């Protein structure tokens, strides 16, 4: 980096700390309940299968993928991918995470609008993520080197900020999608008797901890957006 902006720390640190806390909270809660077997005796894969079959989603496969907490639902392939531990383990953590991913499949089935919107803006977001950094950092550098005029700098920064706002919007729309998937997961787990009344709080804790990581990502994105707005106003 050609120079370091201390102001950046002011905007980066809160998001970073929240992110670290969310990661810590997730890994400690997840590993705690990974050691607690579910009374139903089901593995994560079996619990997800039960929820999907109950909803008539027999054609949605539940597959195993390597990695730690790499679990996800792919709305394009309409398939569930569970990390090896959650696929095989018969624990409250595994069942909770697997059910959450099944919750996304239920969202797809009913055409849950925020999920569709999130899917639709994925390509734009991927482009906006790289383009915004390139434009924002490039503009600051070129202005610093006196290569571009103040008016050109303003135009480029506005473009970069608009692109970065799309990234923040994506993080914002992720929140209702994730909370709703967990809500559906808990509903089905209890309704189908895959989790008992005693086990409810544990499953809720695991899912809340997972959701907190998305809150941290949103806070980080919003603070970065504020940082770039501040830079655009101050560096003219
Ligand atoms: Zn999710």
Entry keywords:
8 helices; three-stranded mixed β-sheet; mainly alpha; single chain; binds zinc ion; 73% helix
Quick rundown:
The protein is mainly α and 236 residues long.
For the residues shown, what is the average pLDDT?
94
Gross morphology is elongated
Distance between termini?
A: 20 Å
Bound molecules: zinc ion
SSE succession: HHEEEHHHHHH
Task: Tell me the total number of β-strands.
Answer: 3
Structural class: mainly alpha
Helix content: over 70%
In this structure, how is the largest beta sheet organized? Answer: 3 strands, mixed
Q: Provide a count of the helices.
A: 8
Uncertain runs are none
Molecular structure report:
With 236 residues, the protein is mainly α. Helices cover 73% and strands 5% of the residues. It contains eight helices and three strands, in the order ααβββαααααα. It has a three-stranded mixed β-sheet with strand order 1-3-2. A hairpin with a 4-residue loop joins β2 (72-74) and β3. The two termini are 20 Å apart. The mean pLDDT is 94. The site of zinc ion (ZN) has 4 residues, from α4 and α7.
Explain the layout of strands and helices.
Blueprint: H1 6-34, H2 44-54, E1 62-65, E2 72-74, E3 79-83, H3 84-88, H4 92-110, H5 113-120, H6 122-144, H7 150-191, H8 200-234
Parallel strand pairs: 1-3
Antiparallel strand pairs: 2-3
Helix pairs in contact: 1-8, 2-4, 4-7, 4-8, 5-7, 6-7, 7-8
Zinc ion is lined by residues 100, 104, 178, 181.
